[in-house]
Amino acid sequence: MRGEGKDAEKYLIKEQWHRVQDIFSVEGSEFDDKLVAGVYDGYPISTWSDENAIYTIEGIIFNKSELDIHDSLREISDGFSIAAISKFVQESDGDFIVCIYKKDTKEALIFNDELGGLPFNYYCADNEF
């Protein structure tokens, strides 16, 4: 979600135990791109980056190691290939949402597991995602 934390809070905070957490922020980009999530203590979310992209997984993938997940998402980030995304989703057991933000093009790819059980909300301001 792009925007300031206070704007995000009015859309994401529905219960007292929820809080808004910055997942990543790309300062100096044209719009100071930011991804935030509504989370609770112990919520399973992880973010890492390399020279090409920032990767975030919300939720859990049970049948893949961290290294396998990282390698698969790096492969997907190379071209946002539908075949690579489909293969990853079909072979991954869990409840998850993935966000891959490409640093050079400032494009984001967001996809979820086959059942899509985790909610995904987005916010637009001034015709921007």
Topology:
Elements: H1 5-12, E1 19-26, E2 33-39, E3 45-49, E4 53-61, H2 66-79, H3 82-91, E5 94-102, E6 107-112
Antiparallel strand pairs: 1-2, 3-4, 4-5, 5-6
Report what the structure shows.
The chain has 129 residues and is of the alpha+beta class. Helix content is 25%, strand content 34%. It contains 3 helices and 6 strands; from the N terminus they run H-E-E-E-E-H-H-E-E. The strands form 2 sheets. A 4-stranded antiparallel β-sheet has the order 3-4-5-6, covered by helices on one side. A two-stranded antiparallel sheet has the order 1-2. Helix 2 runs antiparallel to helix 3. The protein is globular. The N and C termini lie close together (7 Å).
